[in-house]
Amino acid sequence: MIEKVPLFIEGKFCQSQSDEWVDVTNPATNEVIAHLPCALISEIDQAIASAKATFEKWKTVPVPERARLMLSYQQLLKAHHDELACLLSSETGKILADAKGDVWRGIEVVEQAANIASLMMGETTENVATNIDTYSLIQPLGVCSGITPFNFPAMIPLWMFPLAIAAGNTFVLKPSDQVPLTSVRLAELFEQAGAPPGVLQVVHGRKAQVDHLLEHPDIRTVSFVGSVPVARYIYQTGTHNLKRVQAFAGAKNHLVVMPDANKEQVINNLVGASVGAAGQRCMAISVAVFVDGAKAWIPELKEAMAAMKPGGWDEEDAAYGPLISAEAKTRVLRLIQEGKAQGAVCELDGSECTVKDYPNGNWVGPTLFSGVTPEMSIYREEIFGPVLVCVEAGSLEEAIALINNNPYGNGTSIFTANGAAARKFQHEIQVGQVGINVPIPVPLPFFSFTGWRGSFYGDLHAYGKQAVRFYTETKTVTARWFDDDIPKGPNLTINMDH
């Protein structure tokens, strides 16, 4: 019997009464593995009301106790790491190694949430005037919400609700309708870790349900990761409704290859960074910029990419899995055809890819283009597939100008043996996350995920210190006490209750 995905409201799993259901499929087979409800508005209202009522109690829970909840949750996530990875693979098609990485990166953020006490420290200045002190307090906002994408169903929800809840808020999570099962299991483990009922709620749906979260007056913040048009819509609609919004959008990440770079390292890293996870990650490298003589390495890059074979999640020799849906595959194939038609050289074509034992999967093989120019659609659009396009630049300055002229600013890298070139690149590039001989420069959670320009709408980024500021507000207190009010005389005692 096919599973019906439950809601998680008031600390209990329950079945939606909705008449609108969505099929959840395994991308490797396109078989239906679950049915997902588009929650009733009344059910979402119930979740928000529960979160609002719970907030009044949760915000008073001592910070160390909230931190201990995160330590318990982290321990459970580690104990169930492999189980979560297998579940994640079943709904995303990711190979097991990619799925394990997805789960582990989420666990790292939960570890950072356990450090919440130091992250919520305010500031104090004594004697700003005579006998007057000023200090700041960091306090939670209320009910926060998160709308997460299909490509990282463990990591990205764990970017959001652990830090928000550790900071004293409550949270309503709306996972992707394509991959809801991992989020439901994350919520179940959170409950087992000791989270009070109502601290986390999970609702499901599509645009109508998202719109209700964006418009509901009791939702204080919205965190989103997804495509550019939807991120722009989320940001505009959420801020129009006076909410604090962080919306992470698309990317076109470039890796600059200098002629003095280590060729073997360049090729190995380019292959993994471009086709890993089927290219379905916002930090994937989708453009290689070969400076001067480095373009001579393209034939060897082609040979290395050709050896990368997609396959089932549990196949040891599979390099990556399928695309998430038939629609995603159609879009990638369209862009590959447009690249050919617009004059790019298709060095390696994965359009006709098939995988034994999975004839109905959404497969696209590794695809490599050379001779690409900025006017071509395969350069301008985010492909979100296992496709790498190669452009050429005559100098480092030309490469920097090319990247800075691109509308996106999520991540970029340079491979070089020259420290001065690396420093010039990191200083002049207008991109939020920069790698030096590192292909995918995703920061660890004690820093923040800092995409720029068209890759991010908002002010405060995900995880790290910026996320704590996103989920909190600062209250400044100025206090004055008078010496004449100090009690005087014998037998004065101070009692401290334990």
Number of helices: 16
Strand content: 15-25%
Percentage of residues in helical conformation: 25-40%
Report the CATH architecture of the largest domain.
Answer: 3-Layer(aba) Sandwich
Describe the sheet with the most strands. 7 strands, mixed
**Average pLDDT level:** 94
Number of domains: 2
Outline, from the CA principal axes? globular
How many whole angstroms does the radius of gyration measure?
Answer: 25 Å
Strand arrangement across the biggest beta sheet? 15-16-17-14-13-19-20
Q: What's the level 1 CATH class of the largest domain?
A: Alpha Beta
CATH third-tier fold name of the largest domain: Aldehyde Dehydrogenase, Chain A, domain 1
Q: Give the beta-strand count.
A: 23
Cα end-to-end separation: 55 Å
Helix/strand/pairing class, anyone? alpha/beta
**Poorly predicted residue ranges:** none
Write out the CATH superfamily name of the largest domain: Aldehyde Dehydrogenase, Chain A, domain 1
EC number: 1.2.1.27
GO biological process, one term: L-valine catabolic process
Organism: Photobacterium halotolerans
Keywords: NAD, Oxidoreductase
Structural notes for this entry:
The chain is of the alpha/beta class and 498 residues long. The chain folds into two domains: 3-250 and 451-479, 3-Layer(aba) Sandwich (Aldehyde Dehydrogenase, Chain A, domain 1); 253-407 and 411-436, 3-Layer(aba) Sandwich (Aldehyde Dehydrogenase, Chain A, domain 2). The chain has 16 helices and 23 strands. The chain has helices spanning 41-58, 63-79, 81-92, 96-113, 116-119, 155-166, 181-192, 207-215, 228-240, 263-275, 298-306, 326-341, 377-380, 396-404, 419-428, 464-470; strands at 3-4, 7-9, 12-14, 21-26, 31-37, 124-129, 132-140, 143-147, 170-174, 200-202, 219-225, 244-248, 253-257, 285-291, 345-348, 367-370, 387-393, 408-409, 411-415, 433-436, 452-453, 456-457, 472-480. Helix 3 (81-92) crosses helix 4 (96-113) and helix 3 runs antiparallel to helix 7. The protein starts with a strand and ends in an 18-residue tail after the last strand. The model has no long low-confidence stretch (mean pLDDT 94). This is methylmalonate-semialdehyde dehydrogenase (CoA acylating). Its EC number is 1.2.1.27. Keywords: NAD, Oxidoreductase. Residues 15-477 form the Aldehyde dehydrogenase domain.
